[in-house]
Amino acid sequence: MKNNSTIEIRMAEHREAAAISALIYDAFADEKEKYTDGAFADTTPGVEEIEERIKNKTVWVAVSNNVIVGTASCLTMGEGLYIRSVAVDRNARGSGIGRSLLNHMEKLALGMDCKHLELTTCAFLLPARRMYESLGFKQNGFEMLHGTELIRLKKILNPFSSKIKLQKYDHIK
User: Which range marks the domain in which residue 84 is found?
Assistant: First the structure.
């Protein structure tokens, strides 16, 4: 992906469910052998599940040149916003898309008066963990997903001190 490409983050459309499902699958395919079969299946939702999430207005996409290059989904859980299915196209990694999607989720959460953001990831997904931690997420326990250990991460939100910085990624709008 070119660094001068503009990225738009918007709510996903129903017709994009197959592309989103394929993007998520492809984003995790290199690590498939590290998951149990059940955990990988839950990590890479199929078209029908993505369609249901889109219907419920919980899926966001990052689009560059009319191509979906990233996605994230969210749902409210208690006083927080739970983020799931964060994925970035292999060719677009390192360009700030994941960071931009997470910043968008934080803006959504603040707009809904959520107190925190939560997500889970696998210990072996080191680049993702580093990104989450750089955004202020802290380890908050562990859980198992069909025999695959997940790290639970949480970010406490403070609407008065939240500084969502996109200057470094000024090509992302």
Answer: 8-169
